[in-house]
Every structure is written in structure tokens, then in C-alpha cells.
Amino acid sequence: MSEPRKLEVLRAIVEDYVHSREPVGSKALVERHHLGVSSATIRNDMAALEDEGLITAPHTSAGRIPTDKGYRLFVDQISAVKPLSAAERRAIQALLEGADDLDDVLERTVRLLSQLTNQVAVVQYPHLSRALVRHIEFVLLAPRKVLVVLIANSGKVEQRVIDVGQDLGDDMVAELRTRFLGALGGTRLSQLAQALPAVVAATPQAQRKAAHALALGLEGLAQSSREDRMVMAGTANLARSNVDFPLSIGPVLEALEEQVVMLRLLSEMAQDHRGVAVSIGRENPYDGLAEASVVATGYGPDSAAKVGILGPTRMDYPTTMAAVRAVARYLSRILGP
């Protein structure tokens, strides 16, 4: 059996099974695909694929379905991620660009990705601690009360009200803002705590008490932003796929609910040359996801946070990979500097 024909037969089996949910037989392959060989040859080819562990016969069925190893070979042979249609791209752009803030953007992202793929969509919040300071704003609310606003280049905004311990006027607050922003603009948030003491030390003595309070406020905002969390949508799609989870859908739902499992998996997934990461069935380190696949890619300034989908191993990988990558690119553009 030649390598090209082996891949062609495997591709046909994967596509038919994804479309029909039914085990695929040699007769159906000959009827639906122009493989240029007889039904007997296809049966021999399928026997060879089965010997290699790429397809298997479920129960007493005469047909075959792909194994995790078969899906992996199929996914690896997808040379390039196909672009979405112009209509799909316009829909993504229209929906995401209408968002008001980061929370809204991410909520819309998972809703859209879930609709595009009919799977569960997940997105990690950007790691603000890895992002840079884009802007700092101090707003005087009362003589001793200042609203401290920290804006990162990831699009995340953190704010809190600080008691500065001394009376300030608008001019002094503006001067402090200029001083802090001038010294800290472009600083990585994870290094903010180390950079703040120098800013306070360079402040005139008359403003030092307020500067120290504002520095503590900024440090607190940077630390509070490090919490790892994610947003998801489309869990109802899993319920419609109960045939794809013959053992139980419970462990998959538990993995989604136990966000730390999904966050760890997303963080560990390495993108390939096509700009996506695909983890199939038992490749997933968490046993509860042994019947599921995850397709994800990074987004944002340093692509540290991921957006992706989770669904059964029997999924339309080319379309899913295209949707995940396209949505991530729009997300990066919207959140870009």
C-alpha cells in the first residue's frame, strides 16, 4: 500500500465518519470517493490501516472508525489551515468590534467560536502580569481620595480608590500622574513592584506620602490581575454529542468546571507551524478528556493566553482549526496596542 493512498483512504474514512457518525465500510468509500481502486483493494488498505492502529472496528460493526492515532496522522497531514469565508470573517469582525471592554470582548469571543464550531469554546484571560503598562491615570475624587487606573497593552483595565494620606489638589495629582507614567510606561507588569520604589524616591518630599500610597495601589492592581481564569460557552453542544462520549460525558464537564485543569492544559499546549495546537483523546494529560480533543492558539501581545475549543475526537478538524485561528487573529487585533 503506497503512503499517498494510505493517507487518502484514511482522510476519506475520517471525513465520512465525522460527517455521518457511522462506522465507514469499503463499499461506502468506493461510492463516495474517487479513489481509483477496487473495493477489494480498499478492503486490503483498510486492513493495513487497522494493523497500524490508525482505524478500528467498534463492537461488531463491519465498518471502521479512526483511532486517536489515526486522527493525529490526519491532522498532521493538513498542510495549511484554510481561510474562513468572507461572510464568516465579516461576522467575526462585526461582533467583536462592537464590544465595550475586555470582559465583553471575551464573552462575545466564546459565544461566536461556539457557534462557528458547534463545540465548547474557551478563552483564557490575558496574563496581565506579562503585559506592559500602556497608561496610568490618577483621578482626584476628594482631597485625600484618588482613583488609580492601570491600563495594560492587553486591553485589561484595573482600578481602585486609594486614600493617599494627605490633601492633594488637581495640579499635584496631574504632576504625580505625569511622573509615574513617564517612569513606568512600557514596563512589564510583573516588574512593576521592583520599579515603583525608584519613582517614589524621586518624588519631591512634599508629595512623597501620596506617592508612596499611589505606588502601593499600583502594585496591588498588578498583583490582583495575575489570577488565571477563563470564560467558556457552548457546553450544551456536548450534550448533543452524547454518542461521542460512550463512557460518560461527566468527566468532560468536570474538567471544564474545574477550570484549573483546562487552564493548565491550554498553557502546556504548544502551537505547530500552522499556528495552532491540537491535543487528541488520550494525548490529553487529564484522564477525563480521553474522549475529547482540544484545538487552541495563542492571542494578544505575546500570545501567552489561549483561545480554543473542546469537543469529541470526532470533529471537523480543518474547519475548527480555521475558526480558532481566525477568531484569535481578530482578538489580537482588537486588543492590540
Describe this structure in words.
The protein is elongated, with a radius of gyration of 26 Å. The model has no long low-confidence stretch (mean pLDDT 87). The termini are far apart. Helix 1 packs across helix 3 and helix 5 packs antiparallel against helix 6. With 337 residues, it is an alpha+beta fold. It has a five-stranded antiparallel β-sheet with strand order 7-3-10-9-8, sandwiched between helices.
In brief, what are we looking at here?
By secondary structure, this protein is an alpha+beta fold. 47% of the residues lie in helices and 17% in strands.
List key phrases describing it:
single chain, 337 residues, alpha+beta, 5-stranded antiparallel sheet, 3-stranded antiparallel sheet, 13 helices, 10 strands, 17% strand
Write the layout of secondary structure elements.
Layout: H1 3-20, H2 26-32, H3 39-51, E1 55-56, E2 65-66, H4 68-76, H5 86-97, H6 102-117, E3 120-124, E4 133-142, E5 145-152, E6 157-163, H7 170-184, H8 192-201, H9 208-224, E7 230-233, H10 235-239, H11 250-257, H12 259-268, E8 277-280, E9 292-299, E10 305-312, H13 317-335
Helix/strand/pairing category: alpha+beta
Q: Main beta sheet: strand number and arrangement?
A: 5 strands, antiparallel
Estimate the helix proportion, in percent: 40-55%
Proportion of strand residues: 15-25%
Average pLDDT taken over every residue = 87
The end-to-end distance, rounded to whole angstroms, is: 53 Å
Low-pLDDT residue spans: none
Instruction: Report the total helices.
Output: 13
Strands of the widest sheet, in order across it, are 7-3-10-9-8
Order of helices and strands: HHHEEHHHEEEEHHHEHHHEEEH
Computed CA radius of gyration, to the nearest angstrom = 26 Å
Global morphology = elongated
* Total beta strand runs: 10
